[in-house]
Amino acid sequence: MASGLHAQTGRSRQPAAPQLANSPFAAIRSVIAAVGPNGLVDVGVDGDGLTLPMGPNGAEYSTPNRYRLSVKSNWPGMYGYRPVQVKIRAENPAASDHELEFRFVGGDWNLRYNSITARTKFMLRQGEQEASTTLLVPQFQSWYRCSWQLNVDGTRDDDLTLISFDANDLVANRGNNGNDVAAAGVLLSSSQQLAAIENLSQTHSNATVALEMLKPEEMPTDWLAYTSLNVVFVPAAQLQTLIDDHPQQATALLRWVSMGGNLWLVSAGSRWQEVTNVEQLLAAREGRDRPQPNEASPASNESSLPVRWKFAQLDGRALDPDQGALLLTDYEIAEVPVAETPVNPANPAAAAAAAAQAMIQPMIDPKLPKDSAEWFAVRGWGLGTIVAFRRNLHGRSEMDNQEATRVFSQSLLAPRQLWGGRFGSTPDDGNVEFNDWLIPGVGLAPVGSFQILITLFVLAIGPLTYWLLRRAGKLPMLIAIVPAAAFLATCGLFAYGILADGLGARVRGRSVTLLDQHTGASASWGRYSYYAGIAPRSGLSVPVDQAMFPILPNWSPVFGFGGRRSANDREIVWYDRQELTRGWIASRTPTQFHALAARKSSKQLQLRPTSAGMRATNKLEVPIMGIAIHDYDGKFYWCEPLAPDEVRVVQPLEQTEVASRVRRLFTENLPELPAGDDGRQPGSYMGYAISDSIMEARLAAINSPQVAGWGPGRYIAFTERAIELDPGLEEVSEERSFHVVEGSW
């Protein structure tokens, strides 16, 4: 990373002697104290992060293996997969291959509770002197203490192991506030850096802006490493340099954007000159013809922008995630008045939230223009946004800056700038809508069975037993029979509750996938609900490019309900897959996760117009419940169902009929609370709601009554399983799932 650690604890001191000039590691700037396996140890602080071991004259090599270790992670953000950079240097070239295992723990003051453990293996090859790796550590909460351990060929190197140290010594106060704005800047000038920090600070007055400046080669090549960021800044004129010279970094960045991220391009020109160049780059990645600039149109006219670029509306509806998602699509929008979205009557919690929101009118400045033409233009990229700013986010005066701040606050950019706004939840806070996507009939108290059993128990242990014992002349045996019968009845009820839910794991999923069949690019966002009678011994196993973020209920014991504290200790092991081995799923406990994946996909729905109708071949590898098709001639088709590899020819239908069938499927699969749950919890409070997440906003846009068509060459498929998401359990069938694929062909 270009910038190093910016703050250290009060325990730091200067080293007794400077680092040796010929050291391949950066010079030691200060020394901090930490706890090692054998007591307090000194840890060096340098440009490589934290370095072990330290001696009187600076960095040394470990006694058993003659290695030196540096660990660095000054990446901003609190929630997401934090990249931890690990570097090993041997005193001499390795005589043979050595297997290195690095284990990192971050969490609460007591690392045995509410912590995350991540570990991976890498090799120091024969003849080599250095080895490095980047370990992605999911961060779901504030970190106060951390530890790490290095094993060499299966044996711990105590000189390179820390049992406990202050997390601020590693992350430099850049990962302990979920309301802070985490951003990264690439190729920004000094004035652009200042403008970015100032603008984000004004937009979020109660938040701190953490801006990490990066060189292009320092950018992560794994999209998961961007998940803790809110915004990435790049000068519009430098995007081509980034894409041409650093294709791996550019691909990872754009995959993150497709998963709801925000790429902000500054200095796009007073007449949007750079936007045309940007769109030509993006069109090439999408396999489309490159657009030509419209130089005759004024800059304030949307026709001056390339296709797919728009000016954002600056009214109250712009803050609605559903309307923001609709603006970022290329759907055909009908110019008709739109009624308020009806609240699901089966979800009183959502109704209460909507009523409370209606009482709080947004602070709309009537003096502002109706759109963002003076400041910025937006374009959808998958589920995320690419924003082009005419200037450096700055105005020409302080008054202009304040006006720009109000513009951002009234546009679709506002709810997307914070992690919780995009996800509709945070990993360390309860969600008011957790219960609306449970597995039906699972995990509920067997009330009916209890009523029947207790009635039979009362009748049997009372009149019947008394009559039988009195007739037999053994009435004193009531003293033994009554407690024995009560014990057996209790055991029977308990056994029934366990067996009724089953001993295996059950899953319910809900997702949306955007699939570009021209390029194979896919972006999937899902919500999975789990219930296991007995938790799988090996936990969950998902692909290495799939992110998993917990959704907590607002009745979680983490927040003090029930008078107990949850020991939420999770472990992730990185091998060929992400092995979520411990703490991710518990027995007889409803558990939910966001699941996100961005990757290349070979799956597709093959569509070919014929004289007999539209020929559809299912190559999505999952059963399809229904497909809405919008062809290049403006015709609409509906097909249902379609098994994997099945071929069917369908006839055109009216758009209204197709839209009606789409709405029917959405209505039948609305998230709703189980019977008897009114959505209220004692001591709970209003927080983020999953119904406001980017995933739900996209689903609402697909089903919007404003949509007159999804665009030529697009289809909407409803499938029984997600095509690119893995729930992490083998041989498990999903129940009452709802998965939507929006594809282009």
TrEMBL record:
Residues 294-304 have a biased composition (Polar residues). Keywords: Membrane, Transmembrane, Transmembrane helix. The chain crosses the membrane at residues 450-469, 476-499. Residues 285-304 are annotated as: Disordered. This is Uncharacterized protein. The lineage of its organism: Bacteria, Pseudomonadati, Planctomycetota, Planctomycetia, Pirellulales.
